[in-house]
């Protein structure tokens, strides 16, 4: 058995060890920060509207104008998309480890900087916030391909799916922490600086100290990421990158034996056992022949899933007001509103979002990726139609419990389904020297879907009536929520069809999936 092959085989059969769990936490911190930030910004935008865009004499509290709201929320998506492509490419060029600390430091610095957004006018504060949120997104984007690739290359083949899913499931903790931080900070300030409701006293309903609240919430997101920075810099380069891309089997064996309790002896053979491997680039005919459909499958499924996944913001307002969790904005003070929305979103996250992630972790290496993804898309289609067909029934008073249950089930099957598997599979099926790049391309397609889901549907879901009183302030007439739900169900059905382009990787080694040759004197793995 050649040196390179022996190292990779040792990794594939290595028992699950303490280091694997350390790697999950260290790699998962990027996703924690990502989820924390995305969760909190939706809470914070309401408060920003009250602080910076209050209109004297208006019967309702200030809200961010549509273009400002789209910028504050969307600029991080654009940053994430750019970061996924750039750091994915860089991770294959320079190695995973050399780029890995960079993305985390970018996240930490930009989380703090976005909380320190300065300016004398509302426009300058928002412009500064948008600038730092772009670079925060850029760092978060880099974490997608790098964390997935690093975890897949460290893991053994038996539990690899669960390990990558666990990294992604750190998003669940990020969402819960974001909710809890917002609840605690807003409750503390509300107790310390009591304020009347907006309809009692519009000016006093937003105390000056509210400006600290959103800054503290955004800044605290940097803390967990900063704590794991030291361990990130101490992680060795993955053996697969060292052996298959850098062609140094001896170094790969030395690195891995430091962190994993496995015997690895690799005689340095110059080529690391890879002399016979023909290299091909991302834009070559050879790549298109072997992996072209795979890349189309992973990118299209992620794109379609994120359209549906990120459009959930549309319905949360309907749900909260229908269930009576959140009264009309004018009947609350600024901090009261923040507290109530944070509480409601945290409850929904706890019931619908977080359990789905952990179902995936538990079952992915039992059921396989394909089944989980296909069933997830199918169930999302069914539940979206269940919301859309009798939409008038659900919006009638007294029927909101059924609406909430169906809504929760939709997102349970997103997380115990394509939201997890679209992240896992691209880290398993492409060759080592293109793995992070291909994952980055797939993830960037997903973020493109997120932009469509968040903003396209924000406009589409406005009522069809041209009467401006029925649409949200500043938005043109759309196709209505019911028709939007039908469109989303169609996206999920398309996602199910594209799932058939993606191969099953359960229980197979990465080299088996990517068709990489590990040639040795005794054995040759064919290039298929």
TrEMBL record:
GO molecular function annotations of the record: phosphate transmembrane transporter activity; symporter activity
SUPFAM superfamilies: MFS general substrate transporter (SSF103473)
Intracellular or extracellular location(s): Membrane
Major facilitator superfamily (MFS) profile domain segment(s): 23-507
Membrane topology term: Multi-pass membrane protein
Segments traversing the membrane: 21-44, 64-87, 99-118, 124-142, 163-192, 212-231, 347-367, 374-394, 400-417, 438-461, 481-502
Keywords, sorted A to Z: Membrane, Phosphate transport, Symport, Transmembrane, Transmembrane helix, Transport
Domain of life assignment: Eukaryota
GO cellular component assignments: membrane
Entry's Gene Ontology BP terms: phosphate ion transport
Pfam family, one: Sugar_tr
Family designation: Belongs to the major facilitator superfamily. Phosphate:H(+) symporter (TC 2.A.1.9) family.
Descriptive protein name: H(+)/Pi cotransporter
Organism listed in the record: Oryza meyeriana var. granulata
């Amino acid at each position: 058995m050649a040196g390179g092959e022996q190292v990779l085989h040792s990794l594939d059969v290595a028992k699950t060890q303490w280091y694997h769990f350390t790697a999950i936490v260290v790699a998962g911190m990027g996703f924690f920060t990502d989820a924390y930030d995305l969760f909190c910004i939706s809470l914070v935008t309401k408060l920003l509207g009250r602080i910076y865009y209050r209109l004297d004499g208006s019967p309702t509290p200030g809200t961010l104008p549509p273009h400002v709201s789209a910028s504050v929320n969307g600029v991080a998506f654009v940053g994430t998309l750019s970061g996924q492509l750039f750091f994915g490419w860089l991770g294959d060029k320079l190695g995973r480890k050399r780029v890995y600390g960079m993305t985390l430091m970018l996240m930490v610095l930009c989380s703090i900087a976005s909380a320190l957004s300065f300016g004398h006018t509302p426009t300058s504060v928002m412009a500064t916030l948008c600038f730092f949120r772009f670079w925060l997104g850029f760092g978060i984007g880099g974490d997608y391909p790098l964390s997935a690739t690093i975890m897949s290359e460290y893991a053994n083949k038996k539990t690899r799916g669960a390990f990558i899913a666990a990294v992604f499931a750190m998003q669940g903790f990020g969402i819960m922490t974001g909710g809890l931080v917002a609840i605690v900070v807003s409750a503390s300030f509300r107790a310390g600086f009591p304020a009347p409701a907006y309809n009692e006293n519009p000016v006093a309903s937003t105390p000056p100290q509210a400006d600290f609240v959103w800054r503290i919430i955004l800044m605290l997101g940097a803390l967990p990421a900063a704590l794991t920075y030291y361990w990130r810099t101490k992680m060795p380069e993955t053996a697969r990158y060292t052996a298959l891309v850098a062609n140094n089997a001896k170094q790969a064996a030395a690195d891995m034996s430091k962190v994993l309790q496995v015997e690895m002896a690799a005689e340095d053979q110059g080529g690391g056992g890879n002399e016979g491997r023909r290299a091909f680039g991302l834009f070559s005919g050879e790549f298109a022949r072997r992996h072209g459909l795979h890349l189309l499958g992973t990118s299209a499924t992620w794109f379609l899933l994120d359209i549906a996944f990120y459009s959930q913001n549309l319905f949360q307002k309907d749900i909260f007001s229908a269930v009576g969790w959140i009264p009309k904005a004018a009947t609350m003070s600024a901090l009261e509103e923040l507290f109530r929305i944070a509480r409601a979103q945290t409850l929904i996250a706890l019931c619908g979002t977080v359990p789905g992630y952990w179902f995936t972790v538990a079952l992915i290496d039992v059921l396989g990726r394909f089944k989980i993804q296909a069933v997830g898309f199918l169930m999302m289609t069914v539940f979206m139609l269940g919301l859309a067909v009798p939409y008038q029934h659900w919006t009638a008073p007294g029927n909101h419990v059924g609406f909430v249950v169906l809504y929760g089930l939709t997102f349970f099957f997103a997380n115990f389904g394509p939201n997890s598997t679209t992240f896992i599979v691209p880290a398993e099926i492409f060759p080592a020297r293109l793995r992070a790049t291909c994952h980055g391309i797939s993830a960037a397609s997903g973020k493109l879907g997120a932009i469509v889901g968040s903003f396209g549907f924000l406009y589409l879901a406005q009522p069809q009536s041209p009467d401006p009183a029925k649409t949200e302030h500043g938005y043109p007439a759309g196709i209505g929520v019911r028709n939007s739900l039908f469109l989303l169900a169609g996206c999920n059905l398309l996602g199910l069809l594209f799932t058939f382009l993606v191969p099953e990787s359960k229980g197979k080694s990465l080299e088996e999936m990517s068709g990489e040759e590990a040639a040795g004197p005794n054995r040759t793995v064919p290039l298929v």
